[in-house]
């Protein structure tokens, strides 16, 4: 009996030890917890947290295809001077673009830290060279950096567009908003924005300019200052710019009103000095007395227009412009959003060249020019 009990006990012990070893053999280490991407709604829709950081990121952009016809117009659209050469191609003019954008935001002890970048990849198509008219391959056919700035609180540094144009709200929602030009755009900046929170805001911007006649040639920067008052009925904005290259001053005042929920109107006037721009001292300046800011002909110019929203998919946009040199521009379009994120815009443009030609929008031998653009754009 004792021998039987001993054998049974030994067998039980062996089974227990074997079972323990078998259990040890199949133990799998616990996996590290997965870190999923989290939505960040602090700065608006589309942002998400970069894993492992407190930085919110948004990615976007658009794909655009423009078809142009006639003797007047530009494919870069509002806010840029990518002129076409009217003598190079007398039929259709086309341009395809892919634009990639990024936004970041992060809260710090010194305020919100933001960045914004925009890269443009263009392919122009006109007979011979596959470029549009400006003669700048980096813009017409290739890659360009449109924006690349950092902002902490109200301080912004980097590549931007001049506050002389961006702070006042440009000049309408038409594609060809610079038939009578209202200022140059691309520049490196050091800016500070003020926002009192009760409708008043202001900006001070130190700018480098761009181009042959626009880039500063000393340690003294161009200077732009602006103030704005915004309420439910609209806004009043004013900007003043000092062109340090030629010691000239230019300014613009704009009034925005909303007489109806689906109608917004604006009128903007500009005035600039040009004494030094028109001298005969042998400086390399524009033949028509334009600096970086006063791009229009003569001392004064005026722009006006508006947007009428027919429904949630369709809007009408128009702009009229005129300057002291008797240059007169008209632009009008219909924008229709076929589906969310995909819009088609059809625009017609007219330019009358006055006593002093302000731009090479049109053929030099034409006093009156008509053209148009059909734009397809998928934004995301």
From TrEMBL:
Record's keyword terms, sorted: Cell outer membrane, Ion transport, Membrane, Porin, Signal, Transmembrane, Transmembrane beta strand, Transport
Highest taxon above the source species: Bacteria
Compartment(s): Cell outer membrane
Cleavable signal peptide: 1-22
Classification via InterPro entries: Porin_alphabac
Chief place of localization: membrane
Database matches in SUPFAM superfamilies: Porins
Topology within the bilayer: Multi-pass membrane protein
Similarity field: Belongs to the alphaproteobacteria porin family.
Function: Forms passive diffusion pores that allow small molecular weight hydrophilic materials across the outer membrane.
Comment on protein domains: Consists of 16-stranded beta-barrel sheets, with large surface-exposed loops, that form a transmembrane pore at the center of each barrel. The pore is partially ocluded by a peptide loop that folds into the pore lumen.
Protein name: Porin
């Amino acid at each position: 009996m004792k021998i039987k009990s001993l054998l049974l006990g030994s067998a039980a012990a062996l089974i227990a030890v074997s079972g323990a070893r078998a259990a040890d053999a199949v133990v799998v280490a616990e996996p590290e917890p997965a870190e999923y991407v989290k939505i960040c709604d602090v700065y608006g829709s589309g942002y998400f947290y970069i894993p492992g950081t407190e930085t919110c990121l948004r990615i976007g952009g658009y794909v655009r295809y423009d078809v142009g016809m006639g003797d007047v117009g530009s494919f870069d659209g509002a806010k840029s001077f990518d002129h076409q050469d009217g003598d190079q191609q007398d039929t259709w003019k086309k341009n395809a673009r892919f634009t990639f954008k990024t936004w970041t935001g992060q809260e710090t002890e010194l305020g919100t830290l933001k960045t914004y970048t925009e890269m443009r990849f263009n392919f122009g198509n006109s007979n011979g060279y596959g470029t549009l008219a400006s003669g700048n391959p980096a813009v017409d056919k290739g890659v360009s950096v449109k924006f690349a700035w950092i902002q902490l609180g109200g301080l912004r540094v980097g590549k931007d567009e001049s506050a002389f144009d961006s702070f006042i709200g440009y000049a309408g929602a038409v594609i060809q908003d610079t038939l009578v030009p209202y200022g140059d755009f691309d520049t490196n900046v050091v800016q500070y924005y003020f926002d009192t929170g009760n409708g008043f805001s202001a900006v001070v911007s130190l700018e480098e300019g761009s181009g042959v006649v626009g880039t500063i040639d000393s340690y003294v920067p161009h200077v732009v200052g602006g103030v704005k008052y915004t309420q439910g009925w609209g806004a009043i904005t004013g900007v003043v710019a000092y062109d340090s290259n030629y010691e000239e001053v230019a300014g613009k005042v704009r009034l925005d009103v909303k007489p109806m929920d689906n109608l917004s109107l604006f009128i903007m006037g500009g005035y600039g000095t040009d004494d030094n721009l028109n001298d005969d001292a042998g400086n390399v300046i524009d033949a028509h007395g334009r600096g970086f800011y006063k791009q229009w002909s003569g001392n004064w110019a005026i722009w006006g227009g508006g947007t009428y929203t027919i429904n949630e998919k369709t809007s009408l946009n128009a702009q009229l412009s005129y300057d002291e040199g008797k240059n007169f521009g008209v632009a009008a379009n219909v924008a229709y959003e076929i589906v969310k994120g995909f819009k088609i815009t059809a625009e017609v443009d007219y330019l009358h060249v006055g006593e002093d030609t302000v731009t090479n929008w049109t053929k030099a031998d034409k006093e009156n020019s008509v053209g148009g653009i059909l734009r397809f754009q998928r934004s995301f």
